[in-house]
Amino acid sequence: MPISCNRCTDATFTVISYGLFFNGFMVHTPKQVFGPTINRLADVMAHLDRYAFNGVTRLAKDARVSASSVSRLINGKMNPSFAMVVRLTIALEKQLGRRIDPRELIAETGNFLTKFVCDLVGCNGCLPESAVDEFGQVKGSFVGISPGTWVTSKYPRGYQSANSNS
Ligand SMILES: [Zn+2]
Fold first, then answer.
1. Dist. CA 156–CA 151, nearest whole Å
2. pLDDT digits over 8-25, tens only?
3. What is the CATH number of the domain that holds 113?
């Protein structure tokens, strides 16, 4: 009896194994096409006194990463490792005095958990410096955007809105 039980178990296991293998096969066959990785590190930094001046150097030092990496990341010229993102998140959390999810800083196709950066950092609602010209007039893609309702300074309405069929 125990032998036949074992056979049953083996047979079931084999079926499950095939199932898993098959599922794995299905999951890995399509190409993993990622959307562009959008980051708003600079926009969070602009909200913090400590990083308003010499921000890249200071943040790099606080996060124990190289300044050139932070700079390239901010300019969208590198895909950071997860460990690096965590270090940067911890450094920013310390200045913000609140926990933030790394997906608030860097997100595929700019799909951040909290839409507006001001809400994320607890700002009452501002516009980034780049949104206003020397006469205090709102310019470019920020025309029509109320303070506190922008996603990133590069994509005020969000990356997807900026790149949808409009
Ligand atoms: Zn703000």
1. 5
2. 555 444 444 444 445 555
3. 1.10.260
Strand ranges inside 19-163, DSSP E: 37-39, 106-108
CA distance 164 to 166: 6
Ligand 1 center from residue 30 Cα (angstroms): 40
In a domain, 29, yes or no: yes
Residue 121 CA to ligand 1 center (angstroms) comes to 7
Residue range 84-132, pLDDT digits in tens: 999 999 999 999 999 999 999 999 999 999 999 999 999 999 999 999 9
**Domain around 25:** 1-33
Tokens 């507006």 — which residue? Answer: 116
Pair (114, 85) in one structural domain: yes
C-alpha closest to that of 46 among 143, 152, 141:
152
> 62 CA to middle of ligand 1, Å?
22
